[in-house]
Amino acid sequence: MEDPTKSMEDLFNPIIRNRKVLIPGKGNVPDYSNGTKVTFHFKTEASYSDDDAEFDDMTMIDDSKSLNKPMELFIGKQFKFPLWEEWIKHMRLGEVSRLSLDWMLCQDVYPLLSKSYRNFANPHDHDDDDPARRSHCCGMAKQTGTGHKDLDDLINRPPKRLRFTIELIRVENPNDVDKEVWLMNEKEMQENVPVLQREGNQLFKAKKFEEASYKYRKALAILEQLMTREKPGDQDWLNYDLGKIPLLCNLSQCELYLQQYYNAIRHTDEVLEKDPKNVKALYRRAKAHSAVWNVDQARKDFQRVSELDSSLQPMVKQHLIELDQQIKRKTQEDMQLLKGKLF
């Protein structure tokens, strides 16, 4: 039987050998065994010219450096653009190389790859809740749109070719990789949650709040994945759900320090849905509400904290005094501003 991997290599290798190496890179070509994590910058330009030579009239489509967000892939894990994976497997660390492809060879792949990358690089700059945005092939994207005007234009007014430039910046052995959740088996996921929580706590104590947030978020993502394997309401499902509470509490504390107040409100809301008397969550939500001028909600949460834990009453009283002072200052500032506009 014909080896499909071999036939893919035979298909891509002539194209890859014709790439233009701009910077040769260092050392030997790394061992790209399955599971190797590769990090690289890429640039994609479109040409509407019939000229096959190098030209200047290129339209920029994507440039990961401009977003300061390199792309990542795991070798052997069905990357969306197999040619790129095979190309990278020929590259040395630090190499920058370029090749051009006829649009017909990438029209069914690149728009969706670009959409996925942009949604990864700018998670708040798209609307994936709209089912019409979730296209799975270029034909569907033509009908529904990708959610990005320039990609829709690329599909509706196809270029002659795309020119890709890739810079290989990091290659990580499978044993050294901070494994993505989707690559873990169930046992690995269960073992990783307490490890990530401990690492997050250590980072928090070191005042590395961004890094601690990452650990807590990853642990939460693992628990969410584990819950999908269980029947809602069953004991294992409930245990995983309850396991989210300390992680959400710790994450919300990081978010207060990072001034991500609305995230802190959202995550403490989730804790209080599961545990309405959680004093830590109530106190942190009160502080977050106070920071974004949700005065009534802040007062309500502070008062509830005082009711649940009398030892915190002096601290709550001080917070309420400070809140009143802030309101008074804000009212005076607003009155001065209004007075200036009227007179």
From TrEMBL:
The keyword Repeat applies. Residues 31-169 form the AIP/AIPL N-terminal FKBP-type PPIase domain. One of its GO terms (cellular component) is cytoplasm. It comes from the Eukaryota. Gene3D superfamilies: 3.10.50.40, Tetratricopeptide repeat domain (1.25.40.10). InterPro entries: AIP/AIPL1/TTC9, PPIase_AIP, PPIase_dom_sf, TPR-like_helical_dom_sf, TPR_rpt. Its main location: cytoplasm. One of its GO terms (molecular function) is peptidyl-prolyl cis-trans isomerase activity. Signal peptide: none annotated. Coiled coil: none annotated. This is AIP/AIPL N-terminal FKBP-type PPIase domain-containing protein. It holds the Pfam family PPIase_AIP. It is found in: Cytoplasm. Keywords: Cytoplasm, Repeat, TPR repeat.
